[in-house]
Amino acid sequence: MNIMLFHSVYGLRPAVQEAAARLRAAGHQVYVPDLYEGRTVESVEEGREIKDEIGTDELLKRAILAAAPHSEAGLVYAGFSLGGSIAQNLALGDSKARGLLLFHGTSDMAENTSVDELPVQLHVADPDPFEPADWLNAWYLQMRRAGADVEVYRYQGAGHLYTDPQLPDYDEAAAERTWQTALGFLDSLAEA
């Protein structure tokens, strides 16, 4: 599969490159754009400052420009937290998208959004202060109404970015379960 993987609000940290390496080792072609142009941070607050400085529209523009050369072949869009939000926006707007793999994050969507059985898999902490249960329930229903085929995996006791070994949120057991499930999802897309 061709995968476009977007980083979190922390920027293009080593954990994102490690995730891309894991996906490549499983036989996938992975593109990892740097939407912050080389900047990384150590806290969510610093990351939000950069995100706000760049602006949502500019981040989406950068993501679209990164994906455009590869989208003709059909991409699986993936991302971590903020990157998941960006991946969701791109996947829902790309009629050739093969799938959507979300780690720790989702996004609002327009009411008239329609996709043709787009396979979607979300991995999220339970509870997650950035993805509360009420929000996730509403998001799931919206995605289903839009035509997406959605799977949600919740990991009790894990922190928000529990797949990043360099962050305090890291939960090794939850991260490994997430990766096993995500790799199975990607294998199923390759077979489809």
Describe this structure in words.
The protein is an alpha/beta fold. The chain has a single domain, classed as 3-Layer(aba) Sandwich (Rossmann fold), CATH 3.40.50. Helices cover 44% and strands 18% of the residues. It has 6 helices and 6 strands. Strands 2-1-3-4-5-6 form a 6-stranded parallel beta sheet, sandwiched between helices. β5, α5 and β6 form a beta-alpha-beta unit.
Main traits of this protein?
192 residues, alpha/beta, Rossmann fold, 6-stranded parallel beta sheet, 6 helices, globular
- Computed CA radius of gyration, to the nearest angstrom: 15 Å
Proper CATH architecture: 3-Layer(aba) Sandwich
Gap between N and C termini, in Å?
11 Å
CATH fold name, please?
Answer: Rossmann fold
DSSP strand content: 15-25%
Low-confidence stretches: none
Count of alpha and pi helical runs: 6
**CATH H-level superfamily title:** Alpha/Beta hydrolase fold, catalytic domain
The H/E string reads EHEHHEHEEHEH
What class, by secondary structure content? alpha/beta
Biggest β-sheet: strands ordered side by side in the sheet: 2-1-3-4-5-6
Taken together, the total number of domains comes to 1
